[in-house]
TrEMBL record:
<dbReference type="Pfam" id="PF14358">
    <property type="entry name" value="DUF4405"/>
</dbReference>
<keyword id="KW-0472">Membrane</keyword>
<dbReference type="InterPro" id="IPR025517">
    <property type="entry name" value="DUF4405"/>
</dbReference>
<feature type="transmembrane region" description="Helical">
    <location>
        <begin position="50"/>
        <end position="69"/>
    </location>
</feature>
<feature type="transmembrane region" description="Helical">
    <location>
        <begin position="17"/>
        <end position="38"/>
    </location>
</feature>
<protein>
    <submittedName>
        <fullName>DUF4405 domain-containing protein</fullName>
    </submittedName>
</protein>
<keyword id="KW-1133">Transmembrane helix</keyword>
<feature type="transmembrane region" description="Helical">
    <location>
        <begin position="81"/>
        <end position="101"/>
    </location>
</feature>
<keyword id="KW-0812">Transmembrane</keyword>
<feature type="domain" description="Flavinylation-associated cytochrome">
    <location>
        <begin position="18"/>
        <end position="67"/>
    </location>
</feature>
Length: 177
């Protein structure tokens, strides 16, 4: 590159690295977000997308700091106000629609998971292909005391101060952590 030598200090550091890192991280987050949208390679990219997404937010803040002068000027442009208003309306339309959506909408897999967490252990175990006592045994092995097979993972999680999804993991895989 033939750009002039950046100044020393924080501004120089911002100029040398921040737009470059924003570009690199933004590319990966953008491509992985596109894959997730089309339900491709979800298992492989989901957690990477989440964490690099958080890194992207942090680096994007520095990117704005690096371009703070032109960013502030841009915020004063009337066309920026129109675009902010249009984006705000789009956001409100989606958020508003979520309030009026009929109950039971949304991802059916998430609904199934919620119902599984609320079901009594005695009903959940056969769905998971486990014998009557096996779910209870796995929970006990992980240090979760079950008073009655009528208890649900959600109730057990509340009384044991843990996450019900962790308990579902224990029951599914017999994990002890
Ligand atoms: C994948 C994401 C992004 C990429 C690849 C990217 C890339 C770039 C590049 C290459 C420049 C020109 C740098 C220069 O002239 O030295 C730039 C400028 C700028 N970017 Fe980004 N950027 C991204 C995200 C963002 C975000 C999220 C914001 C604001 C929230 C932002 C705000 C700005 C501003 C204000 C400028 C200065 C524009 C100017 O001086 O005219 N960028 N960006
Ligand atoms: C180029 C920008 C981005 C695109 C196209 C994109 C797209 C997507 C898509 C399609 C999903 C899948 C949702 C699903 O599970 O059905 C997703 C999930 C997610 N994205 Fe992004 N994303 C982008 C940027 C970001 C950023 C900057 C963050 C910041 C943290 C982020 C955080 C997340 C998280 C936490 C999830 C997981 C949500 C869940 O557990 O279901 N994404 N993204």
């Amino acid at each position: 590159m033939t750009s002039p030598t950046p100044p020393a200090g924080l501004d120089g550091w911002l100029r040398r690295y921040v737009t470059q890192t924003t570009t690199a991280v933004g590319l990966v987050v953008g491509v992985s977000g596109g894959l997730l949208f089309f339900d491709l390679a979800k298992r492989q990219v989901h957690s990477m997308h989440e964490w690099l997404g958080m890194a992207f937010l942090a680096i994007a803040v520095l990117h704005v700091v690096r371009h703070r002068g032109s960013f502030a000027a841009m915020l004063r442009q009337p066309r920026q106000h129109v675009l902010l208003a249009l984006t705000g309306f789009a956001m409100l339309a989606f958020v508003g629609a979520s309030f009026t959506a009929p109950a039971g909408g949304g991802n059916p897999v998430h609904q199934l998971a919620d119902r599984a967490l609320d079901a009594p252990l005695v009903a959940l175990a056969p769905v998971l292909g486990l014998g009557p006592d096996e779910a209870q045994r796995r929970l006990a092995a992980a240090g979760v005391a079950v008073d009655s097979p009528a208890q649900s993972l959600a109730t057990l999680a509340a009384t044991n101060h843990t996450d019900p999804r962790r308990l579902l993991g224990v029951v599914l895989g017999g994990r002890r952590d």
